[in-house]
Write a structure and sequence with these properties.
Elements (H helix, E strand, L loop, with lengths): L2 H22 L11 E4 L5 E3 H15 L5 E5 L3 E6 L2 E4 L2 H6 L11 E9 L1 H6 L5 E7 L12 E8 L5 E5 L3 E4 L2 E2 L12 E5 L5 H9 L2 E3 L4 H9 L5 E9 H14 L2 E3 L15 E7 L2 H11 L9 E6 L4 H16 L3 E5 H12 L3 H11 L20 E2 L8 E6 L1 H10 L6 E5 L9 E2 L3 H9 L4 E5 L2 E5 L2 E5 L2 E5 L7 E7 L2 E14 L7 H4 L11 E9 L7 E4 L4 E5 L6 E5 L3 E5 L4 E6 L4 E5 L5 H9 L9
Parallel strand pairs: 3-6, 12-13, 12-14, 17-18, 17-20, 18-19, 20-21, 21-22
Antiparallel strand pairs: 1-2, 3-4, 4-5, 6-7, 7-8, 8-9, 9-10, 10-11, 14-16, 15-16, 23-35, 24-25, 24-34, 26-28, 26-32, 27-28, 27-31, 28-29, 29-30, 31-34, 32-33
Helix pairs in contact: 1-2, 6-7, 9-10
Length: 614
């Protein structure tokens, strides 16, 4: 958007704000102004005063000397200007390549004519208009990153915010900046929470003050000007509501993201919504994100290391990581069997040849195996994994290695997985990215992803599983007859080669191969999947993880083996029951990016789970 376009868009925005303010003034404080007259394009009720305001906006843009697109709460998406008014779908319109230059709009206006309608009707002094102006991109959809100008006016007190991308933010023509508070217990927090969200309750409890004014656009602007320290909307704000206030806050120096700390760049559409977490600075913002994701990060002072030991690569890489951690002032403890393997390579007269061979086999990490410091007493810092008492455990290997390690570690020890296996779905990173990621983790720039575990009960014995439990016969190609209950109610009786009870973590493992659904780990449920059932109607079930699942063997003379995470086998006999419940203890995986699960699904499962570097 050049200087001339910015002036045109700014002048139109000023005119809209002035005329809407005049138009609604007689209706403020009048109960009849709040009468619901229709449903808006965004699916929410439209009040009479909203219609008055929006009609003024549309008339101004319709009669403007330039063409524009508009996204507005009540009317939806239109093409306006030069006396024309046409309903459109913005995403479809932007994909068109048959529009002549003279018919191509110059701007996209995102307008909420009155944000805080209920306040206006009741004459509570917190209602105003929000206008964002975006470029019209060529050959792609428009997103929040295309917004160049933002204007917000509080009609109740005359305060006027405006921002220009890359130039700054002003309140009543004076430059503003957010507060400098970094203490969450001193925080003034505004916003909207969601019923039943315990993390939000914790955030509110931590705050010194909580404000709920009923106007998203004004409250985000208050963060920009230091009146608030932070703002949240866990219901999901409409993009047209936050388009201007996002720019205003960012230009003032604040931060606004989704719940997971990811930047907001949603497409511009009447239907788009996003959870909003806004704060004055990075320090306060990170504290909020950590609380909302049950992810209070701790200082990592002591690190445990476990690894697969059937290859030279993970053993050598472990030695490199040990030296890195010690150099960075961390206490290190390593698994005894790993210490023994490193000592064997250390004492081997052909050590240099082993390293060179490994570097040739794995050129992507060859440079990381240079200058390994073997002048460390590995035996001295070793112990059994059951005795690890550490702030974080690093596990080198594939999913099997990680599952083995987590089953032996003290409950809820955070695990950082480095993929040196076949699939590595549960692990965090590939080996080549190890030290950049560890830099972030040791600096506290990480979050803990919570994964549910199963408690498996059989004949007064209790076991646990993170991925799944598989029940099958010891002899191949033999069927079992299962009765399956959920909270005491029989949901299925089926003959099958076996049965899988899986957590969401295990949904991408054996459960998926047996025809089960892929389940986001944030979903609170368990999956029950018959393996090769001899019944047309037998299908997988997803049940609440607050339920108790009971599986009973019905075939006389048949025994079964149930296997936890491929690690431990136990036997069950005819008419014995195996019970499954959610564990009170969770598994925590260290993550450096919130975009983990679906990215892994695309990366790891599209090629059949083959890691060609292994």
């Amino acid at each position: 958007m050049d200087a001339q376009d910015k002036k045109i868009a700014t002048d139109l925005s000023y005119e809209i704000i002035k005329e809407v303010s005049r138009a609604i003034r007689p209706y403020v404080g009048k109960p009849e102004s709040g009468e619901k007259v229709k449903m808006g394009a965004d699916g929410t009720p439209t009040s009479f005063i909203d219609v008055i305001a929006e009609e003024k906006v549309i008339n101004i843009l319709k009669n403007a000397p330039v063409l524009s697109y508009i996204v507005s709460e009540e009317i939806g998406e239109l093409k306006l200007g030069k006396g024309t008014k046409k309903s459109i779908t913005l995403t479809h319109e932007l994909r068109r390549d048959d529009i002549e230059d003279e018919d191509r709009p110059r701007f996209i206006f995102l307008v909420d004519p009155i944000d805080g309608t209920s306040n206006a009707v009741k004459e509570i002094p917190a209602f105003g208009i929000s206008i964002a102006v975006a470029n019209v991109p060529e050959g792609r959809l428009a997103t929040l990153n295309d917004v160049e100008l933002g204007f917000i006016s509080n009609f109740a007190n005359g305060n006027f915010f405006e921002a220009e991308k890359g130039k700054g933010c002003w309140l009543n023509n004076e430059e503003v900046s957010p507060s400098t508070n970094v203490n969450i217990s001193n925080m003034t927090l505004g916003g909207f929470t969601k019923s039943g969200t315990s993390a939000a309750s914790q955030l509110v409890d931590n705050a010194r003050r909580m404000r709920v004014l009923g106007s998203v656009v004004l409250e985000i602007s208050y963060v920009a000007s230091g009146r608030y320290d932070a703002f949240i909307d866990l219901r999901g704000s409409r993009i047209l509501d936050i388009a201007a206030s996002k720019l205003i806050l960012e230009e003032a120096g604040g931060i606004i993201t989704d719940k997971y700390g990811e930047k907001l760049n949603s497409k511009l559409s009447i239907h788009e919504r996003t959870i909003v977490v806004a704060a004055n600075n990075k320090i306060l913002h990170k504290q909020m994100i950590d609380i909302l994701n049950d992810n209070q990060t701790d200082f990592i002072g002591k690190v445990g290391i476990a690894s697969r030991i059937d290859q030279d690569r993970p053993i050598l890489f472990s030695a490199k990581i040990i030296d890195y951690l010690l150099t960075n002032g961390r206490e290190v403890v390593i698994e005894k069997r790993l210490a023994k393997k490193i000592e064997e390579i250390k004492a081997n007269p052909k050590r240099d040849k082993i390293i060179e061979k490994t570097k040739k086999q794995y050129p992507d990490i060859a440079h990381l195996l240079d200058d390994i410091n073997f002048e460390i007493d590995y035996k001295q810092i070793s112990c059994g994994i059951l005795d690890f008492d550490c702030d974080m455990a690093i596990v080198l290997g594939g999913d099997g290695t990680l599952l083995r390690a987590q089953s032996k570690l003290k409950a809820e020890t955070p695990i950082f997985g480095i993929n040196m296996g076949t699939v590595g779905f549960l692990t965090e990173i590939e080996a080549k990215d190890t030290f950049n990621a560890l830099d972030e983790v040791l600096n506290g720039d990480y979050y803990k992803e919570k994964r549910t575990k199963l408690v498996v009960s059989h004949e007064n014995n209790h076991y646990s599983a993170m991925n799944e439990v598989v029940i099958m016969t010891e002899k191949p190609a033999k069927m079992l007859h299962f009765q399956i209950k959920v909270d005491g109610e029989i949901i299925e009786e089926v003959r099958a080669d076996g049965l899988i009870v899986s957590t969401p973590s295990g949904s991408t493992a054996y459960a998926m191969s047996a025809g089960g659904p892929i389940v986001d780990p944030k979903v609170g449920g368990f999956i029950i999947i018959p393996i090769c059932p001899y019944k047309l109607g037998a299908r997988p079930f997803i049940v609440s993880d607050n339920s108790e699942i009971t599986v009973k063997l019905l075939k006389k003379g048949k025994s079964a083996v149930f296997v936890m995470d491929g690690q431990r086998n136990e036997e069950a006999e005819y008419e014995e029951e195996i019970k499954f419940k959610k564990s009170h203890k969770n598994v925590y995986l260290i993550r450096t990016s919130t975009k983990y699960f679906y990215k892994k699904v695309k990366e790891k499962l599209s090629e059949g789970g083959i890691n060609k570097r292994c």
